């Protein structure tokens, strides 16, 4: 837990090493900005792709599934950082992050349930070689994309950052 040198100058608080709760003397906020930016770009690429009709194009469907995976991953990790810095909540798994976002008021009951279901779809993506499953996943991804966008907006609002154009 105390593996990285902090350098925050508050050695009495964090003993000169970076525990998960230390913000690194402001560097934690910079890292949060980076995580929010990466998640925003990932979600934008997903939304761009789901807004296009792709019919029977297998390559486009598979690209949509991949973009869903990395959009979900970057968004829950950004949420994890927001919870750590702004709510003093230290959680390590997507389910725990979603539950904590719900408890912190970032998500309502329905949204939290839908994002929990999204985890199942994310886990099923490793079986995208199964044509029937891949088609089913692809039909659910547009709704997932919209919800990821909402979640990211809620995170940005929590930390007082507007979406960058």
From TrEMBL:
Superkingdom to which the source organism belongs: Bacteria
One Pfam family this sequence matches: NTase_sub_bind
Gene3D superfamilies hit by this protein: Nucleotidyltransferases domain 2
GO terms of molecular function: transferase activity
Origin species: Paramagnetospirillum kuznetsovii
InterPro entries with a match to the protein in the record: HepT
Name of the protein in its database record: Nucleotidyltransferase
Keywords for the protein's UniProt record, in alphabetical order: Transferase
